[in-house]
UniProtKB/TrEMBL annotation:
<dbReference type="InterPro" id="IPR001647">
    <property type="entry name" value="HTH_TetR"/>
</dbReference>
<keyword id="KW-0805">Transcription regulation</keyword>
<dbReference type="InterPro" id="IPR009057">
    <property type="entry name" value="Homeodomain-like_sf"/>
</dbReference>
<dbReference type="InterPro" id="IPR039536">
    <property type="entry name" value="TetR_C_Proteobacteria"/>
</dbReference>
<dbReference type="Pfam" id="PF00440">
    <property type="entry name" value="TetR_N"/>
</dbReference>
<protein>
    <submittedName>
        <fullName>Transcriptional regulator, TetR family</fullName>
    </submittedName>
</protein>
<dbReference type="GO" id="GO:0003700">
    <property type="term" value="F:DNA-binding transcription factor activity"/>
</dbReference>
<dbReference type="Pfam" id="PF14246">
    <property type="entry name" value="TetR_C_7"/>
</dbReference>
<keyword id="KW-0804">Transcription</keyword>
<feature type="domain" description="HTH tetR-type">
    <location>
        <begin position="11"/>
        <end position="71"/>
    </location>
</feature>
<dbReference type="InterPro" id="IPR023772">
    <property type="entry name" value="DNA-bd_HTH_TetR-type_CS"/>
</dbReference>
<keyword id="KW-0238">DNA-binding</keyword>
<dbReference type="GO" id="GO:0000976">
    <property type="term" value="F:transcription cis-regulatory region binding"/>
</dbReference>
<dbReference type="InterPro" id="IPR036271">
    <property type="entry name" value="Tet_transcr_reg_TetR-rel_C_sf"/>
</dbReference>
<feature type="DNA-binding region" description="H-T-H motif">
    <location>
        <begin position="34"/>
        <end position="53"/>
    </location>
</feature>
<keyword id="KW-0678">Repressor</keyword>
<dbReference type="InterPro" id="IPR050109">
    <property type="entry name" value="HTH-type_TetR-like_transc_reg"/>
</dbReference>
Amino acid sequence: MDTTHPQRLTDRKRQAIVEAALAEFRAHGFDATSMDKIAAAAGVSKRTVYNHFPSKDDLFAHILNELWASSAALQAFRYHPGVSLRTQLMDLMGQKMALLRDNYFLDLARVAIAEGIHRPERAREMIARLADKEEGVTAWIRAALEDGKLKPLDPAFASHLLQGQLKMFAFWPQVAMGQPPLDAAAETAVVTAAVEMFLAYYAV
């Protein structure tokens, strides 16, 4: 007897609920979205929605958790003392750019940002959660600093400065203005410029 099929079906329903919630939150906002609407959009019963997520707040928390988890590759990136800073940064920023072009990640970000604007307390909660878990780029910069390869700096500030250059072209225009993602040549140009400027200013 195939015991894996029910689990796969459950997983598909759960994902359908999350995707429906994303669409409803984006279209109507958190407060105006009901679990009934989410169930109808997902093509499942309201009971099924509640079986997976006891409340709308739990569902939104799950969306936030997916947003944090989507940056796992960046969190896992480690500093390598024997490899040039430029090589490592081009790889790290290339991974960041790949995340920023992912449509699902952008949808998650749109919902989280919109809710943060309408409910500042949620924005504070999101920022606090991010602060509790040092970001991979900041950790990489801290390691390079400890290895004596960078001038004295604030790792968190330098990380925001570096990543902000990518987001200026490949995140905020797409999230806030619906612009299409950058093509491969434009992505390479942005990453290269950001890395070169960072190294020109901070590298020893």
